[in-house]
Amino acid sequence: MKRNLTCIVCPMGCQLEVELEDGKVTRVTGNTCKRGEAYGIAECTAPTRTLTTTVRVSGGTQPLVSVKTAAPIPKELLFDAMKVLRKLTVAAPVALGQVVMEDLCGTGIGVVAGKEVSAR
Amino acid sequence: MKELDLVIIGGGPAGLAAAVSAYDAGVRSLLILDREQQAGGILEQCIHNGFGLHRFGEELTGPEYAARYIDEVKKREIPVQLETMVLDLQPLPDGSKLVTAVSSGGMLELKAKAVILAMGCRERSRGALNIPGTRPAGIYTAGAAQKFVNIKGYLPGRRVVILGSGDIGLIMARRMTLEGAKVEAVCELMPYSGGLNRNIVQCLEDFGIPLLLSHTIVEIHGKERVTGVTIAQVDENRRPIPETRQEIPCDTVLLSCGLIPENELTTAAGIPLDPVTSGAVVDQYRQTGCPGVFACGNVLHVHDLVDYVSEEAALAGESAAAWLRGESLSGESVSLIPKDGVRYLVPQQLRLPLKDDLRLYFRVGAIYDKATVEVRCGEKLIFSRKRPRLVPGEMESLVLKKSLLEGLDGPLTVGLSLEGESK
Fold it and tell me: ipTM score here?
């Protein structure tokens, strides 16, 4: 079986062709870098996405801080992760790179702040 | 009146990078002016990742990318005056420039030897698009909605139709979906999307949001609040086909229909603009038609990737420093003319002789597969490069070696030759 994908690793958007046999990837073509190959394999076996969103800040100069998952998480967990993060409030000051949640939805992957918010 | 060597108008990615490179090239009397409460420009609200792959070799979110440059500016102690909006720019008879701004402290007048224009761009609004219908609440540009969601923490609607498939529209389709809204469709007037491929995949396909190409909104319904839109398919002349009209109930319409460089100050200073880019006409130094005034970033031409904004801004900063040192940035002028599928070129002019290799940026007007980009001087082919695919949504660039451009005797043209076509 062949699957045609657009690589989303970087803005180049290479057109990948992934060859599969019994759910296993046998060949990735069309990629221009190694990360593209890794993406092709992951996308056809266990697709992941980096989640970027915001969480509430208490006592800060701004009401929200932007956050991202420290690594890509399984794609099917995106909405569960949003549900959890919607309930989270962090206290100002928040530092750039600060871990605001250690383990998101049992993935073992943390959530880090993408900017600095000073205390009011 | 305060006198400075260099005033940079705008503290977004372009202004910050320009300031850093001007400083590193020796400029010490400089000031960045920005109208927002914080530097960083639009990056502050672009919380998605994908920034910085070219510049830093890693994927950063917008605020993270901005923070890198804000740090560099702080390290150098380059002053940034925030909440200050520049209202006027005028060249003075002595060759300096008068910058008039307003802030909470009142009016501010600065005399600068050189100015870098880094004001960015703004979104095309409903008024500019002429969409018929009533005028209810719930119609926003995608960028305004992005600010509500990502900075203020408000969700502007629950059922959304997005017009235009530019990157901000695609990004907001995903963002609104993740925040619990239902995005009914993204309508795109053109037969192709103006956004990056990766965004179509990870923002629409991931969430099953339909992308309706060759479709537009023909009417917006609702009195107090948007209640729905009528969409229709368009023919090859982009005219709606009446039989294809269909109504989609929704409470919110987001517009992502293009960006317009914000050049009111440029125009006020009498600096010539390129009618296609809506930005200033510049040479390879990014110097405009007014000596000592440089332009970079989205105010010059709309970029897709901030990495290239930083690169262009660094060039403008270095050029301003060279100009302030009294180096000549003038010379015989040769025009660069886009043709055959190439919509615009930046720079639009060359000053000869070239000091460095030349990097040209351009955009094409339609999708072309297997095209060859050809640079010619008259009939003479100077450079050509095959490209598998060229699309309007992605800015292209090419580098011409200095040696290739020696002894030019007329304007350079850059155009496409398609496979199978003989020339």
Answer: 0.90
